[in-house]
Amino acid sequence: MAARAALADRAARADSTVLTGARVVLPTGTVENGRVTVDGTKIAGTAPENAPTRDLSGHWIVPGFVDLHNHGGGGASFTGGTTEDVLRGVRTHREHGTTTLVASLVTADIDFLTRRAAALAELVQQGDLAGIHFEGPFISPCRKGAHSEELLRHPDPAEVRKLIDAARGTARMVTLATELPGGLDSVRLLAEHGVIAAVGHTDATYEQTVAAIDAGATVATHLFNAMPQIGHRAPGPIAALLEDERVTVELINDGTHLHPAALELAFHRAGARRVAFITDAMDAAGFGDGRYQLGPLAVDVVDGVARLAEGGAIAGSTLTLDTAFRRAATVDRIPVEDIVQAISANPAKLLGIDDRVGSLEPGKDADLVVLDEEFRLKGVMRQGSWVIDPA
Questions:
Q1: I need a surface site. Which of 37, 91, 233, 334 has the fewest CB within 10 A?
Q2: What percent of the chain clears pLDDT 70, i.e. is strictly above it?
Q3: DSSP strands (E only) in 107-225
Q4: Which residues belong to any copy of the Amidohydrolase-related domain (predicted)?
């Protein structure tokens, strides 16, 4: 009996690790020379006696990143390709610190999207993805960005319902141009089913956007991009989305989609608790320059910037969230605690999974990122296992 207990104790210690010496960013603030105890797949409040330690002095430990809006990476698209392609994209972003990821689909035929949602739902159920986001086809042709205009349609609530039903409980967000016919009814439908209604790729006025928020819209899809800009007599959707406490605003912090002053404006007006950093990444993220497909449209990536081959519109990004974090800290000079809120805590809360991820607290998944003093990524842990070992 004693031998069996000793064996169990050794097994427990082998499955436990105490990370020491780093600056640890907690919900209550940054702890110098902090400790994070990993016990199996979870963060623990206390460590077993004689648990092994890992000295990470000179580093930061922050929660794993949570990406609400991501179309692919590693040469793989979430809208097309095989299951292995999707998993390759997930692995690519995981190696850049994104331990929780929602797969975003671009505009396509409704029947295609329903089939794709059914396939991705299996990966959500397996824990590889955190859900599905439909960015289109219910968006404005005036603000279509890198979406195929001939496949766009008004947001008919029956078709919206068809998509969320196909996802079998894994639909997390639908982006809509809520000013279009059926837009407000679709927002109400999504709210009733616990799916985030996001205002985006929209030509809405200020007043129309206020109506959408009152109907239940709670997210701004990549704020500033693919929507009318602020005017002093026609403030448009940006002002409405920034001013309302019920709305979280997505920001693509890659230096291409937003001027630093626009980022500062969003943080100043909305506050860190209402910002969510996203990638809006496409296949080329973590893969390199070249010719790619985004849905049916050809995209050329040159010097890391993705643009439609025809017309030159920005076509998603090649961003990974570790780059967004480093840029926010070193270029935008945002406090690290605010970056962590925007890149981990806020998106986790939006997705309704903040009881498991989004912060370094006992009982939550052991998802964390190790950064050096210059905020370069050095390690990634997901559910207690090193994806990238900081050694």
A1: 233
A2: 96
A3: 131-135, 171-176, 196-199, 219-220
A4: 60-387
